[in-house]
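User: Modeling request: complex.
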Amino acid sequence: MAISSAVQGVSTAKRQRFLRSTVVLHAAAAVTGLVMVLYLLAHMYGNYKVFSGQVAFDGYSHYLRTMGEPLLPRTGALWIIRVVLLASVLIHMYAVIALWRRMRKATAGKGGRRYQSRKNPRGVQRTYSSFTMRWGGIIIFLFVIYHILHLTVNAIAPGGASESPYERVVNGFSIWWVVATYVIAMLALGFHLRHGFWSALASLGANTSPARRRLFNQTATVLAVVITVGFLIPPVAILFRGVGS
Amino acid sequence: MIITLRIWRQQNRSDAGAMVTYRIEDVAPEMSFLEMLDVLNEQLTLSGDDPVAFDSDCREGICGMCSLVIDGIAHGPEALTAVCQLHMRHFDDGAVIDVEPWRADPFPIVKDLIVDRSALDRIIQAGGYITAPTGTAPDAHATLVPKDAADRAFDAAVCIGCGACIAACPNGSAMLFTGAKATHLGSLPQGQPERNSRALAMINQHDAEGFGGCTEIGECTAVCPVGIPLNMISQLNSDVLSALAPGRTRRPQTG
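Assistant: Request completed. Predicted assembly structure:
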């Protein structure tokens, strides 16, 4: 008994060590990132209800609170989505911060800038999106807080507060600097997804050949463009085409 | 050719170190980069100075000893080329060239351009083997190896363990090296019994040495003198993740 419990203790400690390995941390960041991508696609689709007018948009907003009834209570499904998303964000941030610390330790805190020579500061082939991942993540994090305060809890209301989600959207995006902040955030998101989507698939072991590497990189570029442009069309249309006014 | 070199000089591990400029007048275009450093060292020796310490052995691109970061790129500007096979004809007459050692926390500097790469040996020790009965050599056809598996294993086995992947990695990760070693044995029938425990033991040692994680940027494969492909990292990821599935493996009890 004493021996078996000692062995048990060792393997539990080892298991924890494997679960904190760089591979598992990256897998966690990858899975949670892909969950958030799925949410983004659904969110982007919902935004286009703004072109169908106030009744359709507010009706969609109401539906999001009642979907799943009567199996789930009111806003039950929405809260499940919110909890999954919040858990994804927290796990994603925990993993990438732990990996960032390992990078700092392995490179004396300098990353790709640890050589005296300044002749090839961007290395041989690395993409712009690959070396702005961490800053992009910070911009997106700050944007999400701002976005929730603006359109979800309505704590800040540039252009005027309203009970109607449709009016909140139209009031906000009629102001140029609100649209400008969203443009900056969506560009950061696009660059983050350009490298992040490919990197997530590779971290999960899906990159099995040079042809796959090319395919995943092309898919990531398409996804990044679709999400960036797809999210920017409604606010830009409200600002310049007067949708809803 | 006249070449100006800015070389990292560092007396020992605790010395701060600095870039020092040298000028060489009689460089022939057909010299390799290391032969040019030999010429510099003869000059320094004759003038009573301490010659520049750098690693080299076979000088034909197969041993993996040479390890110089030239103008910020591991193994210099030519693709699929180790420094010993890099010739001076690829540089302009009058060029100023920066020469630095591999830089990563698990690679402490021994002197000047020489770093201690024992961390890579310890990753191999952790899982770079198969368990097989010794004795007389087995018949060549005793274990059948599919052609695809043999090719894949060979593509991984060409890794010379120089460490350029780590030197080039913005994260200081050794995943391309570790991935090549895990893919080499993991692709062959003889390597299957220990495939799961090997993946876990090697990633464990990789992390314990203080290497960073892989963010799939691809600088490693771009500087690799033998062209180890990036997908070998993905194979290691896949092996580690599937080994962690419940009931998949007895975890190694040592290491």
